[in-house]
Amino acid sequence: MNDHENVQIWHARLGHIANDRIRRLVDSKNLEIDDLDHLLTCESCPKRKMTKKPFVGQSAIANGLLDLVHTDVCGPLSIPARGGFSYFITFTDDHSRYGYVYLMRYKSEAFGRFKEYRLEVEKQTNRKNKSLSVGPRW
């Protein structure tokens, strides 16, 4: 792997962070990249910074914990995370806005991760999950 590929892979793995942050990671010895001259703007970064029209979403917030939980599956990631994880699923409680993220190798693991999430939060809160909103709409 050449330095250009190494820089671009770390840029993507770290959530498309700015070049100055990559330089700081290298300077603080938290990341090893020999040639920082290959720091470029990747193709997707300018597209992600485009402004979007405001979204008029739901105005009412759930009355209690676990009354409404939003979930979404993301992936496949162009560069898998360590361990070969190409997908992730998020669960966000509408009332508290507290969120969970689970890594997955396959999209088919989503239901298993939901059962894992539900068991954990219902045990922590002594409440049952009442409703699940699926997808990116919220």
Automatic annotation (TrEMBL):
Please state every residue range assigned to the domain named GAG-pre-integrase: 4-50
Any one GO MF term held by the record is: nucleic acid binding
The domain of life is Eukaryota
Task: Return the Pfam families for the record.
Answer: gag_pre-integrs
Q: What is this protein called?
A: GAG-pre-integrase domain-containing protein
Q: Which organism is it from?
A: Sesamum radiatum
